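Morning F.,

Quick status update on the modeling queue. The single chain you submitted on Monday has been processed. Sequence for confirmation:
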Amino acid sequence: MSDNLKAEVMLVGAGGMAIDYAKVLKGLHRNFVVVGRGEDSARKFEEKTGVEVRRGGLEKFLASADRLPPYAIIAVNVPQLASTCEALLKSGVKNILLEKPGATSIADFQSLRQSALENHASVSIAYNRRFYASTRAAKKFIAEDGGVTSFNFEFTEWLHVFENLGRDMSKTTHRLFLGNSTHVVDMAFYMGGEPTEIICYKKPSSTYNCKALFAGAGISERGALFSYQANWEAPGRWSVEMLTSKRRYIFRPLEKLQIQQMRTVKVDFADVDYSLDTEYKPGLYLETKAFLDSDENFVDLCSLDEQCARLPIYQKMSDGIF
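Structure tokens below.
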């Protein structure tokens, strides 16, 4: 059981993602307190983790807490991310790891950024794919090769999956790019460099009231040419490819690294230590450690400022989906 007076970390949320964080926090030997809202999710969380959940929601917890931990991890449902973060910022928490994408509108992002500035707080967006073993290994190899010269990525979503879940598709599809596709886009731009030039094309869905076909190209700050595509009404999957003058690095699936050497068509899986990504949700252990320890990997976290600066690019790619 977690003792609030000793807790170093406040974990807000008790759903599936919070369970993954609890496992990591246990692995890091951190004292933490869990704040939940619903009875069903709290009970399931306790059954899976053996950690008590403080029920009643964040507002009740903040009103009754003797002290607040210096670190907070927000793992609530996407619609509640921004308001939860706002509440913690106003309560005085200075270090926050906010689950992706952080908010669902540009206005909410701007409000969060202003609150973080006013309260002298640090907010990071939890894009855990930056911390995959595959990503970390490829970054090292790419540096040895002299850097990325070009890259490409695909962020095709499976609309039928969301429809089968009973989601309101008129709303789901308008949030899908920001809430889901940016997992891939962020990974690609993190490795290949932020766009300095980008041209984007979109076509509407034949079934839903949204754009569903995407293509584009541009140049990154590192001088690398890039291209992307996605067709939400055709078969496909997430993928990223990074090319150097010596090798092609293939992430398909994103969790595994494959390498193609120069002057050959043969593709081999790289010899990478995936042990942390096997024991925990991929990327989550190193991401959480970087956040709590402010170690050398802290710079790899996506800051709230970085996310806000990226929003015009996301807006252009998605044509106002969010």
